[in-house]
Write a structure and sequence with these properties.
By secondary structure, this protein is of the alpha/beta class. It has eight helices and seven strands. Strands 3-2-1-4-5-7-6 form a seven-stranded mixed beta sheet, with helices on both faces. Strand 1, helix 4 and strand 2 form a beta-alpha-beta unit. The longest helix has 14 residues. The chain is globular. The model has no long low-confidence stretch (mean pLDDT 95).
Amino acid sequence: MSADKTYDMFDPANPVLGYIREKSVREPDYLVRLREETAKHPAGRMQITPEQGALMHMLVKLHGAKTAIEIGVFTGYSAAVLAAALPEDGKLYACDHDIRHMDIQHRYWSEAGVQDKIDMRYELANDAFPQWEMEGLIGSVDMIFVDADKGSYISYYEQAMKLLRPGGLLIMDNVLWYGKVADPENVENLTVSVRQFNDFASQQKDVEISTIPIGDGMTLIRKSD
Ligand code: SAH
Ligand code: CA
């Protein structure tokens, strides 16, 4: 390897990524299999990466989260990660309008022993948010992970902020959009949506914010006390 060799962090073949995974990711066996099964799906790369999972698992614990929400579940990998980190009496409220992955979600969630901690709703996020408000979650949720349709990120941010407790943590996924957000010449719809969200987030008051170049980029947003 030449001394000045650099690697594209979005290239799945990046050997540095392999190195990080080998040294610092302790992915339970059920997650390895769920990831391998999801990889066969044409939209498999929507799933968080294993090193993202390791970080999110630790964040749940560091934050002492008991109540969490996930928007965009797909085959259930990130939900399994979050739920496994929650305490026995913790709850993950989750929503995805697509019922086609119900079987794979339930297979792995039961194997992981987290099925009882997950309150899964098969509906649109814009229907789930008002329900959670009516159910009394306003100002009480410790942590919210948003990983659904990118065009709605600003709206999900606003709805999530209502539900979070002061000091609560919002995590938004895919905020680097394979690096395209930083290329001004890229004006694809989804790139523009993600960029608009990042512009919006960067201007928010009363939050702390940190974007981490892990996976496809995730932004941590902490609601002020
Ligand atoms: N968080 C998952 C991956 C989610 S992929 C993981 O890392 O394992 C994005 C998901 O968002 C898809 O399953 C899609 O069905 C869902 N989604 C897209 N638009 C949505 C909407 N408006 N409401 C709820 N879910 C939505
Ligand atoms: Ca994602």
